[in-house]
Amino acid sequence: MSISIPTPHIAHLTEEDYEHVYEPAEDSFILLDALEIDAQIIRDDKPIICLEIGSGSGIASTFLTQLIGPGSSLVLSTDINRYACKVTLRTAQANNITLNPISCHLLNPLTNRLKGKIDILLFNPPYVPTDSTELQDTQELRDIGGSWAGGNNGMIITDVILDQLPDLLSSNGKMYLVTIVQNKPLEIINKMQLKGLICKEMIKRRAGRELLSVLRISRK
Ligand SMILES: C[S@@+](CC[C@H](N)C(=O)[O-])C[C@H]1O[C@@H](n2cnc3c(N)ncnc32)[C@H](O)[C@@H]1O
Questions:
Q1: What superfamily does domain 17-218 belong to in CATH?
Q2: Where is this gene product found (predicted)?
């Protein structure tokens, strides 16, 4: 039987907030749907360390925290955009959970400490193909433009994490990654399998012009 988890409250966020932080959209919701499909597996695994990279509004980190429920899990979140970290904090408070967002590039300040320890990793990355100048500018500005600009094939930021992934995941660890067709999900699956990980397309869905997927990448 599937478990149904309510979508986190985000009514506290305003039009002004959405000028600075990514407004939850179909790509955000497909990630929640993937987590909901795996809810029982995630609960049974009793994850200890979870991390969302690029938490934006905080909707996915909040959802994951609610899905896991009270216990010994630590849900960490990062975002390159400081405004997004503040909004993630507000979303956590509005949903009566605790999050401690960290403003940084990917998980850089945590990488060494989290090696081999991440049980659940979430990333709805900036996945839109752009030229390298737009990617560089938006990453430097650390504003809302960084929500989508993904450079060549929309994969430049994602690839940094995928290359580190075998070192980051715990023995039972799983990553949930949002992609669009331009990111070449089949190539991602092959690449991760060559690294010795199991990679499966869990959901595929058209949303307007985007053909979205969620990939689950795991050791087992
Ligand atoms: C598509 S949005 C997703 C936001 C949210 N997770 C959701 O699903 O609605 C991508 C997020 O990644 C963040 N981001 C972009 N580049 C990043 C980087 N180098 N390190 C950390 N976060 C980054 C953006 O600021 C943005 O909040």
A1: Vaccinia Virus protein VP39 (3.40.50.150)
A2: Nucleus
